[in-house]
Design goal:
Quinone Oxidoreductase, Chain A, domain 1, Rossmann fold, seven-stranded mixed beta sheet, 10 helices, 15 strands
């Protein structure tokens, strides 16, 4: 028997979330690697699943948790054997396949990434999908030719998981980062991560003109909607915007003007189905290039039981940085 968060659907269509005991017979039969989870996380998508605020769960009952790190205990997959250390992000886990907010999981070996040498399971989950997505976004800016001397980089949703890690990564690479947040009380925190300047998200979150004053050489946006539209409208000639989230909304109330008059590039960044080579490269860079001291200031540790109460907070924007879930706690 092992402890897990289990989601089920009530008769009225709402979601019921509870901490319970499961056994191996209840694990999915379409996985070829059984693992002990040491740490997981709470991401925005996990908050949606646990609260039922959005229909992200596609199969019931469901164990949420799109991230997990721990040790393989049994495997029929050729790349994995008992004792191997792994990281899992995405692939529909916690949505259509039982996830990692549990002490045990059965997963597909093709989904797993080998944990970099010297990186603990806790550190891996302090980074989690949010940090791994931040690295994908930052790498996308580099690949599009955005250089340190091109100008400021805007990071929206700055006090959240993606934003916090993105600031740490970009400032560590020598970029000048401007952080946009709805929590100006977090200014000192954001500057401690490497932000050179902090602006109020209100400057970006209302509808704006299709073409605005050029401000940004690059943007990492986890917010979407009017914020993304304004960020694009303010991007300098030839600049790049990496979009990875929708905290404000899925809409994109913009025009083609920045693309055809300023040659702005809008790059979509997906972490859920990203190919394995990109995942391995991102985790390798995180292990070698992310300031782990800054990561520690971003991170708080909670238990499985506390994950149930924290889920609404992440949707309400009340969570700073990253929440690591000690599934044994």
């Amino acid at each position: 028997m092992f402890t897990a968060i289990l989601l089920s659907k009530n008769d009225d269509g709402t979601t019921a979330a509870r901490l319970t005991q499961l056994d191996d017979a209840q694990l999915p039969d379409d996985g070829d690697v059984t693992v002990n989870i040491e740490y997981s996380t709470i991401n925005y998508k996990d908050g949606l699943a646990i609260t039922g605020k959005s229909p992200v769960v596609r199969k019931w009952p469901m164990v949420p948790g799109i991230d997990g790190a721990g040790e393989v205990i049994a495997s029929s997959h050729p790349d994995w054997k008992a004792g191997d250390q792994f990281i899992l992000n995405g692939w529909g886990v916690g949505e259509s396949h039982m996830g990692c907010l549990a002490q045990r999981a059965r997963l597909k070996g093709d989904w797993l990434v080998r944990r970099p040498s010297g990186m603990s399971a806790r550190t891996a989950m302090a980074i989690g999908t949010a940090g791994y997505t931040a690295m994908l976004c930052a790498t996308a800016l580099q690949e599009q030719g955005v250089k340190k001397d091109n100008g400021d980089i805007l990071v929206t949703g700055a006090s959240g998981g993606v934003g916090s890690v993105a600031i740490a990564i970009l400032s560590g690479w020598g970029y000048r980062v401007v952080a946009s947040t709805g929590k100006l009380a977090e200014t000192d925190y954001l500057k401690s991560l490497g932000a050179a300047e902090v602006i109020d998200r209100a400057e970006l979150s209302a509808p704006g003109k299709p073409l605005q004053k050029e401000r940004w050489a690059g943007v990492i946006d986890s917010v979407g909607s009017a914020t993304l539209a304004n960020a694009v409208a303010q991007t300098r000639y030839g600049g790049t915007v990496a979009a990875c989230g929708l905290a404000q909304g899925m809409d994109f109330p913009a025009s083609v003007a920045p693309f055809i008059l300023r040659a702005v590039r809008l790059i979509g960044v997906d972490s859920v189905m990203a190919p394995k080579a990109k995942r391995v490269a991102a985790w390798g860079r995180l292990a070698n290039e992310l300031d782990m001291g800054k990561l520690a200031t971003i991170t708080q540790e909670i238990t499985l039981a506390e994950a149930l109460t924290k889920a609404p907070d992440i949707l309400a924007g009340k969570v700073r940085g990253r929440m690591v879930v000690n599934v044994k706690g």
